[in-house]
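Write out the 3D structure for:
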Amino acid sequence: MAHFAEVINGKVVRVIVAEQDFINSGAVGDASNWIQTSYNTRGGVHYGVAANNEYLPDGGTALRGNYAGIGYEYNTEHDVFVAPKPENCESWTINTSEWVYESPLGSMPSDANTELGQYYTWNESAYQANNQTGWVLHTPAE
């Protein structure tokens, strides 16, 4: 059995587990709308269960960038699935090695003090006003 994503107008509308023969039979619609996806692929890396039961990169071949989910985009040019762009993140672009959207400033800072409840969010307006800012640190009021 394998996982298949039904893609309509470039968007994943459902994902099922089936045999290729079942997809080819037309029982779930036009077979050309179904594209195989791998449950073990995310961020352009193939994962497997290691001897210690951790889910770790295993050196296998990644299939189509990411495991497809409903609402994901299917990029025909690169034959990959990409999660939807986060809301209010117009400046974000696709990282073409990991096949995920990322901010123009890179990863979210990691210096938030989680014990104090601090966390970061992206502020697109702040980025548009000054392209050196965008990640905003929040500290909940006591």
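The longest strand covers residues 11-18.
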